[in-house]
Specification:
18 helices; mainly alpha
């Protein structure tokens, strides 16, 4: 049920926006039923150790590519609505930098100030040079596919996650096919975190480039700074204090080296001024609770719990999901209640729902019964296997 809730959080808003309430409710019910049935299939597939070929992942990638080819030109015409200006934000920022101008003095075609930080600009720069910023989505999508194959124990789990939370999640599919960078930000930050954690088991010379790359990705949006706390807890548990201090110093130096030069000649005041734009999203939250201070402090406090628990990559995603949800959910919910213009802005929760889904499915794999040996699979028929699975779930 938790996976259904995560899917609804980022899928219900676009369904309600473009469908009648009855049809939207039917689509949501159908989506939840499909997730439940898929989990039953996943239980069976992982128990039987069914081999999921890489061709299924290639097919899914091609379906997402086809969706992009059809929907991206439509999004540029703004025929369905005013469209998304997230790709335009990166474009005008990089165009300003190309002409030696301050990138945050510009406005998108919707009149909004651009919000991507310099890390996102740097990673999008090669695609800006060839004239197609949205093409970066394909590179990071392919690498994210590789990440899921590495992260999950079974290919069937990875395929289910990618299908339901990318292809069949309207909010995520809309961001991907409109050239937006919210999904892309999550893709490369997740990949960078995984590389950094994997490098802790190797020599320090491998960890250094991983730390530098992580610093660049974290400077894409300020929300990703929250991952540093559980990541510090994980790193301190896996390596020495000296190596932990060195690696986190490199992460911070890398982020500063990418970010601060863009805000010269007064980097810190201009950076604070740029980050202050996020305070406008809190305008519908009662002022007496001081949301600009209380929400970040609460998110940091939740993240600090990670220092008192044994940490791994899976649990890191859980803490990151909880911290970002605390920070993002209040203004998303108040938008839904008080703003006609931003009523369907639940795409902000993509970071939280994707992180939570990674943890939930990985946790599900760990709680699942051990796979049958080939001899057991041959001796037991499907009916016996299903009875064994039911018995195991009942005992749990």
């Amino acid at each position: 049920m938790s996976l259904c809730a995560a899917w609804i959080l980022t899928s219900a808003a676009p369904l309600l926006k473009y469908l009648s309430p009855t049809r939207a409710a039917a689509a949501i019910t159908l989506g939840c039923a499909a997730i439940v049935l898929a989990m039953l299939w996943l239980d069976h597939a992982n128990r039987r150790q069914l081999q999921i070929g890489l061709g299924w992942f290639l097919l899914l990638f091609l379906l997402l590519t086809a969706a992009f080819a059809v929907l991206y030109p439509i999004s540029l015409q703004h025929t369905l609505n005013r469209g998304s200006d997230r790709e335009d934000a990166l474009r005008i920022e990089l165009n300003a930098v190309h002409h030696h101008q301050y990138p945050y003095a510009t406005r998108t075609f919707l009149g909004n100030p651009p919000t991507p930080l310099p890390g996102a600009m740097l990673l999008a720069a090669p695609f800006f040079a060839i004239g197609h910023i949205a093409w970066q989505n394909f590179l990071w999508l392919a690498l994210f596919f590789a990440f899921t194959l590495h992260f999950f124990r079974y290919r069937a789990t990875a395929l289910l996650f990618l299908t339901f939370f990318l292809l069949l999640a309207p909010g995520h599919l809309s961001d991907f096919t409109s050239g937006g960078d919210y999904l892309t930000n999550f893709f490369y930050v997740t990949i960078a975190i995984t590389l950094f954690c994997a490098s802790l088991r190797t020599s320090i010379y491998t960890s250094i480039p991983a730390a530098l790359f992580l610093g660049v990705t974290l400077s894409s949006r300020i929300i990703y700074a929250l991952v540093l706390i559980p990541l510090l807890a994980l790193t301190s548990q896996r390596t020495s204090r000296a190596r932990t201090a060195l690696l986190f110093l490199l992460v911070l130096l890398s982020a500063c080296a990418v970010t601060l030069p863009v805000f010269t000649p007064h980097p810190f005041p201009k950076l604070l001024e740029q980050l202050q734009q996020n305070a406008l999203k809190l305008r519908y939250i009662p002022r007496p609770i001081h949301p600009q201070i209380s929400l970040p402090l609460l998110a940091i406090l939740v993240s600090c719990v990670s220092f008192f628990l044994p940490m791994n990559l899976t649990r890191l995603f859980l803490f990151f999901s909880a911290a970002t949800f605390i920070l993002l959910a209040p203004f998303v919910l108040t938008f839904a209640l008080y703003s006609d213009k931003l009523r369907y802005a639940f795409f902000y929760l993509s970071v939280s729902t994707l992180s939570f889904s990674l943890w939930a499915l990985s946790r599900y794999e760990n709680l699942a019964p051990p796979p049958l040996s080939p001899l057991e699979s041959e001796k037991l028929g499907d009916g016996a296997i299903d009875r064994n699975l039911a018995s195991h779930r009942h005992e749990r």
